[in-house]
Every structure is written in structure tokens, then in C-alpha cells.
Design a protein that fits this description.
Length: about 180
């Protein structure tokens, strides 16, 4: 018998001063058995940092091969933003850049290694794609604080991320690197 996904719920108070976004969010994230807690945290942070009308987690989660971890659709259903998490391969980023007006990659891995794996590969509009990184100790501590029902406050000020997750206070710089 296959192991099913674990459902994590998040009551998130989002305060992104840099973009003027202030929201109360009720999120449900299904964690696939092959998904690490670190990937889940990065997926949650990417969603919060990219929050806008039409944002959603992909229907298939990490097992979706034709959709990103997070995407934004307009009112017609067209994908306007494709947000990858982790260390996507070049073909996937290339396809994303042709399908969506905006592409971003968020990683909890070493950004130099993610960039190196994509350098020299054919990627449409590679110079316009940002790679955002989160410090590994931050992600590890957030992953350790995860439970099935979570409360979080996510604040962003001058590209610094402040996260209070279930009583654990964490902070990190949001690293920004270009892919091109």
C-alpha cells in the first residue's frame, strides 16, 4: 500500500512591507512522501514572497511534472508567473520561461550549485530569471518547527525575511542571484 501525502495547515499573517502586501492566509499544503520538510518550508516561503491575486500551489504538488510548485494565473486561466522551488533542471526552466511572463526560482540549496547546474544550458530569457536563496540554517530550523497545524507570521522588510513559526522566531536575508 502506498503512503499518502501528509496535510499541513498554515494560518499565516503576511506582512510584506517591501511590496505593500498585507494578508491573512489559510493554507493547506499536502506534503508528498518524497518531499522533504525543507522543500515544504521553501515552497511556503516562495508562496508568501510571491503572493498576489491568482496565486496557487500546483495541483499535483511535487509530483506534478507539467506545473511548478507555485504558479499565478490570470482571470482567463493563463499562467502569468511560474515559481520553481529547489533545483529545477534547465529544460523545465526553459519551458517555464516560454509559457509564463515571469519565472522565479527559490532554493534552500547552495545557490552556486543550482546556478552551476544551469549555466551554459539553453534557457529562454535566462537573464530575466531570478534565483532566490534562503540560508540553510534558517530552513533547517523552520523545518524542525513544522507540525501538522501551524501558525506563522511572515514579515519582509528590505529583503530580510522574519518568520515566526509555532513560537520559533527566525530571520534570514533573501539572497538574490541571476541565472544568466
Amino acid at each position: 500500500m502506498a503512503i499518502g501525502a501528509t496535510l499541513h495547515t498554515f494560518a499565516v499573517h503576511l506582512s510584506d512591507v517591501d511590496r505593500g502586501v498585507y494578508q491573512e492566509l489559510e493554507l493547506r499544503l499536502a506534503r508528498h512522501p518524497s518531499e522533504t520538510a525543507e522543500f515544504l518550508v521553501t515552497r511556503l516561503v516562495a508562496y508568501c514572497l510571491e503572493y498576489e491575486d491568482g496565486i496557487a500551489f500546483s495541483d499535483g504538488g511535487v509530483s506534478a511534472t507539467d506545473e511548478p510548485a507555485v504558479l499565478v494565473r490570470d482571470l482567463t486561466g493563463q499562467i502569468t508567473a511560474w515559481i520553481e522551488v529547489g533545483a529545477p533542471d534547465a529544460d523545465r526552466v526553459h519551458r517555464a520561461s516560454k509559457l509564463a511572463g515571469r519565472v522565479a526560482v527559490y532554493t534552500h540549496r547552495d545557490p552556486a550549485k543550482v546556478r552551476a547546474a544551469l549555466t551554459g544550458k539553453r534557457i529562454h530569457r535566462v537573464e530575466t530569471i531570478p534565483l532566490y536563496s534562503l540560508d540553510r540554517p534558517f530552513v533547517d530550523a523552520a523545518a524542525a518547527a513544522l507540525v501538522r497545524r501551524n501558525t506563522a507570521t511572515v514579515s519582509v522588510l528590505e529583503r530580510r525575511l522574519y518568520l515566526e513559526l509555532n513560537g520559533t522566531d527566525l530571520t534570514t536575508e533573501i539572497g538574490e542571484h541571476g541565472l544568466g
